[in-house]
Amino acid sequence: MNATVPDAQVGPRPALVSWFDHHRRAAVQSFLRLWREPIQSLVTCLAVGVALALPAALWALLQNVEAVSGSVQTAARFTLLLDQNTPFEVATQLAAELEGQANIDDVETVDRADALKDFAYGIGLNELMDNLDENPLPHLLHLHPDKNLSSAELDALFISLSTLESVDQVVFDTQWQARLGAAIATARRLTAGVGVLMVLGAALILGNTIRLGIEARREEITVIKLIGGGDGFARRPLLYSGLWSGAVGGLLGAVLVALLFGFLAGPADELFTLYGSDQTVSGLGFKGAFGLTVAGGLAGLVSAWSTAFIHLRRIQPR
Amino acid sequence: MISFERVSKRFERHDALRDVSLEIAREEMVFLTGHSGAGKSTMLRLLMLLDRATSGRLVVNGKDVATIRGRQVARYRQDFGFVFQDHQLLFDRSIFDNVALPLDIAGFHPRDVGRRVRAALDKVGLLGRESANPAVLSGGEQQRVGIARAVVARPKVLVADEPTGNLDPGLSAEIMALFEAFHRVGVTVIVASHDLALISRLRHRIITLKEGRLVGGVGR
User: Fold this and answer.
1) Least packed by Cβ within 10 Å: which of A88, A192, A311, B201?
2) How much is the ipTM here?
3) Per-residue pLDDT band at A142 (split at 50, 70, 90)
């Protein structure tokens, strides 16, 4: 045992360099620590993943609905109910005139007899036709306006169609579009609200895990403080374990959403087809998955920081 | 270097230190002794800023420690090497990582950390054991790891609180010899111990406390 002091000139590196270096090592060690207790880490990350998957899935679903509603909207259609006693020839003539207008794409004439047949078939009552003495329906014109018309131009077209002679009534259902728009807006709010709650939930789950981590490392933190380590030094590994758990949780959440959408794809695509859209259901995508991972990481970081802030101060060497 | 100026420390019911005035010079080695409860640990706790004096001043390196607050406390403690009776080692990591901890805190380059840790372990006779877990060591060896950790960052002051409290006489003498070796290379050493038989054989100032008062060893 000798007490000579070799290489006494070697000292600590500049503060910034060692700060970065400690960050790097804390990041690596916290990540490895996740794998040291795989089951517990998996449960924590999965809890975060499930919490994030719900709002993410809602959001992705909403994106799909909006895309479909967009393509339905372009297929706007006027239905012109002609006067009851208008002959079919007048109807076809009117159709030809209207088709010549620049703001109208095409016009389809429906004979009142066919209209009744379609109606009866549509509601599944073929016998209806036999029981009616008289056809209550007039001849119809289905009119598709130009796809590029604004809603103001559509309104103007509606008015001009209503004033036409021999037209009894113009049906242009803008209301269902307004309803759909409002429903989407509501769903979007709901998604945002649920999103905030679930991210908060994820942060609380992580906060609790970090708190347990602090308790498990109480001895280490005490020793660090005894020999001159500050709160920052003790906090660093905790921040990174929050960051990693959150990010892995977000990634797992993205995987869950992908599985969910895979599960939905069959019936959802069929539903879209039934609404006359050739769109197929699309999930979060790479960007969305990346965003969810980043969101998870941020939630983890914030929750670790606040938990460490509260609990590290309480641990003082005795 | 360290001066207690009429320092008192009062806990709820009793006075742990009463009007203690004392100077410890740079590069000196002193023993602090007295029965348990005499105030040895209280003096060391004040020095480590684990407690604050009720009255009087404690001046270290010309600075009143009452002015050291918050973040500065950690920085202040880095100038000291502490050895604890229960050695305070971490059993979730190797001997190497235990000894390296103060260097990590101070921000040494990993290359220098390796060199210094091995040098410190060499000094306490445990070179070659660095990858073992401290739990497999005997009590005396654990205490030597604690000493290696205390000196690895080459502090100016080495403070030990009953470092031989749990050791048999042979090991205790070895540990004390280590402290003397550090003292010889210019480290200020303060050792609290109630093992009078051992410390009176060593030729250093012995500061005696009794019921919180200094009763011996005030002058040099």
Assistant:
1) B201
2) 0.85
3) confident
Distance CA B107, CA B74 (A): 14
A128 and A97 inside one domain: yes
Sort out which chain B residues have CB atoms less than 8 A from A223's CB and list them: 88, 90, 101
Name the residue with tokens 């050791």: B167
A130 and A208 belong to one structural domain = no
**Site of tokens 């020839």:** A89
Question: Cβ B107–A224 below 8 Å, yes or no?
Answer: no
Q: Would you call B123 and A21 a contact, using CB atoms and an 8 Å cutoff?
A: no
Q: State how far Cα B34 lies from the chain centre.
A: 17
Q: Does A258 map to a domain?
A: yes
Please write the tens of the pLDDT for every residue from A10-20.
567 777 787 88
Condensed to tens digits (0 to 9), the pLDDT of residues A237-289 reads 889 999 999 999 999 999 999 999 888 888 888 887 777 667 777 888 888 89
A233·B105 Cβ contact <8 A: yes
Closest residue, chain B, to A313 (C-alpha): B70
Q: A44 is in which domain, residue-wise?
A: 18-71+178-312
Residue from A13, A215, A227, A315 whose CB has the most chain B CBs within 10 Å, to mutate: A227
Within a domain: residue A287? yes
